[in-house]
Amino acid sequence: MRYLIGMCLVLMNIVLCAQDRPNFVFILTDDQPYGMMGCTGNEIVQTPNLDQLADEGVLFTNAHVTSAICTPSRVSILLSQYERKHGVNFNSGTSVSDEAWSKSYPMVMRKNGYYTGWVGKNHTPIGQGGYESGVMEESFDYWYAGHGHLGFYPKDRHKIFEDAQSDTQIEIVGEGIEDFLDPNAKKMEGAITFLEQRPKDKPFVLSVCLNLPHGAGTRSMQMRDNDDEIYKSLYRDREIPLPPHYVAKEDIGVPKLPQHLLMADNRQTGYDYVDSPAEVREMYLRQMQAMTGIDRLMRGLRATLKEMNLEENTIIIFTSDHGLFMGEFGLGGKALCYEKTTKVPLIVYNPKAKRKNKGLRLDHLVQSIDIAPTMLSMAHIEAPGSFQGKDLTSTLSGSNDEVRDYVYTENLWSTQFGNPRCEAVQSKEWKYIRYYANHNLPALRKIQTAKELGMSVNEMLYAVHDPDIAMYRQYVEAPLEGEEVVYEELYHLSIDPMETTNLVQDQQYADQLNELRGVWNSEIRKAREEGRAAVYRYTADSQLQSGQSIETK
Fold first, then answer.
1. What pLDDT digit, counting tens, does each position of 336-356 carry?
2. Distance between CA 166 and CA 105 in Å, rounded?
3. How far is 495 from 492, CA to CA, in rounded Å?
4. What is the pLDDT of residue 185?
5. Torsion 68-72-75-76 (CA) sign
6. What is the rounded CA–CA span in Å between residue 6 and residue 245?
7. Cα(180)–Cα(79) distance, rounded to whole angstroms?
């Protein structure tokens, strides 16, 4: 009898937990550095709804990505792994294997009874054949997304969106969100669904992945007649300031990094706008317009949740895949391990949180790989052993214990575009960055050769071939095997948050430098762990062999 009573109590607890499990909406923006909202210190941009979300939730003021480039950062979020472990980047020649994908947060939650949706952008190659494998489309109960860049006008690029009433990206994504949440909303004919509508008796997790305020997306804004006034006139009556420590190309004296490391002349042309004050102001204005559009998207999302009686049980998480240089110190693009590229906003809003735990601003050192284990914990689901991130639920509940003592970030995207390989470790007070020799064939030489032979410049620059897999794996393993560092930086973040003064040659900080070198040695090994990355070969050669078109996104 005691056994039966015990079993009944266990079953009742399981049922209650299932009924009490929260819904999740995870929103990921693109190229959004930390200071692009009112709540993160921007005095120009209008983001009242995002600011309200932070006021009613928790804003982490010291959150960082693991790799400041689109694909590896997004894979890191999905799998809760550093790039050195998951092994997928633009230059890696690999895609995420089915084995690894089965342990991503959407798949784990789906296996545990969650109804899953994905809306917007996918920039992670999943399965045998990457973007053309169909694995992503088949992995969700609701799919309304395009692979690679969406542009500001997604209908120009992706057939799936052609039924949308709107033409602009943020508004099309908003239509997809409403379709997922509201059975009475206009049905998106392009959406791939496995059920006619979302089951009301199942919790859901919706991933909303935007491609804004990404530089390429905002650059494609055209102020079309049908565009909302936000994207045509907002902020155009304001004096737009240049970023702090901005340096125009013609004024660069001593570059931020030595020329043999950062080959700036080979930077992707899409970032040339940082070279001129007028162009950088225009791009910054467009980014702010996009942020106000995203803010309005948040208003619509919360209104729909309220209308559907879902607001009291839906957790909203908001962050970005990385930041973006806007000419600070003459730099453009991302990928490096500076604060402007690795530091991002992270807001976690839980409507059921205690009042004392709402409106908090926390400076704990957290990372994007912490999002997946935190969601699973809040959903009462055990995280896979492959996860490397931390569960933040105790921190969200008011614990003052530090999440970690150090943040580790890395850049393995070292290619013809001039970016060097580097790694960084940082505490709340100090940051140490180390760099390795950059022997990549320059983009300008590749472009010259392609033009002379009448070849496709895009294929010359972006197609990854089988030998590149070996090169990438050398990038991963060499520092662990004793590769010499060729340049180092040391910044006193607590008094120099903009990283203006490299103290590595200052003898009074020699002890601090040596300590952080030791921390680096420990943290890179934790990031790498043991074993091979669970990946498939995904190169131009493999695509040709299988009859696919060559991927040059």
1. 999 999 999 999 999 999 999
2. 30
3. 6
4. 87
5. negative
6. 66
7. 24
